[in-house]
Inverse folding.
């Protein structure tokens, strides 16, 4: 990259140090999710549903959604009026989700599929480690992250990649990660339902903790110079 680029803008503050070993000028320009004109896809609502966010690719959804449904079946036993929503980004994922849910007769009265990822409300969320989990963190929504990769992918990942967390919110707040993470065998319905029930024991108190984490995230993602990507690009073009 240093050979073909004049300069680079990044949206996460830790990315700047990734280029310390090259001469490429790198500038943190702030994250678009904390821009004043950003429309958040999800908001916290104490009376909102439990959101299931298994991802936006078929194979990961096939691996993690059954675990989320196992947890949901257990949660319904302790909360019979529980409403569950599964937002889907496209028809392919919708078909995949409908096929998996069709085998869960006990969930049909509780679970609804949403055909978009906008204007969502949630009191709690079961999430994979992707972009929507980050959006939930910025919205201060309590929840749990879980993920299951292909066994070979997971083994290679453990061998090659040394990071303490998968969720971006946890990576940005490593000293006080907001979300518990359950990976591979730990992404189990019993374990996940227990983690959600732990949040529900004192929903208001726990939501305040997630709200504080959201505020920390937002502060860390703002450009201290109050310059955004457009300002950076304008400045760079002016140097040409």
């Amino acid at each position: 990259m240093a050979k073909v680029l004049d300069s680079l803008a990044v949206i996460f503050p830790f990315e700047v140090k990734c280029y310390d070993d090259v001469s490429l000028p790198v500038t943190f320009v702030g994250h678009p999710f904390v821009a004043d004109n950003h429309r958040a896809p999800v908001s916290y609502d104490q009376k909102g549903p439990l959101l299931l966010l298994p991802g936006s690719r078929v194979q990961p959804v096939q691996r993690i959604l059954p675990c989320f449904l196992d947890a949901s079946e257990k949660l319904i036993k302790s909360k019979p009026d529980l409403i569950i929503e599964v937002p889907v980004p496209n028809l392919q994922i919708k078909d995949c989700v409908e096929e998996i849910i069709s085998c869960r007769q006990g969930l049909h009265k509780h679970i609804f599929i949403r055909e978009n990822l906008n204007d969502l409300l949630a009191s709690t969320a079961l999430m994979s480690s992707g972009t929507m989990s980050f959006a939930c963190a910025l919205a201060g929504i309590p929840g749990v992250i879980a993920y299951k990769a292909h066994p070979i992918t997971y083994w290679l990942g453990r061998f090659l990649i040394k990071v303490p967390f998968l969720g971006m919110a946890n990576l940005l707040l490593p000293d006080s990660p907001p979300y518990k993470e359950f990976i591979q065998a730990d992404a189990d319905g019993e374990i996940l339902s227990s983690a959600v029930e732990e949040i529900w024991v004192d929903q208001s108190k726990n939501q305040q903790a997630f709200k504080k984490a959201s505020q920390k995230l937002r502060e860390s993602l703002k450009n201290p110079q109050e310059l955004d990507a457009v300002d950076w690009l304008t400045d760079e073009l002016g140097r040409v």
User: Anything to note?
Assistant: Residues 63 and 148 are 6 Å apart (CA to CA). The mean pLDDT is 90. The chain has two domains: 1-30+225-240, 42-220.
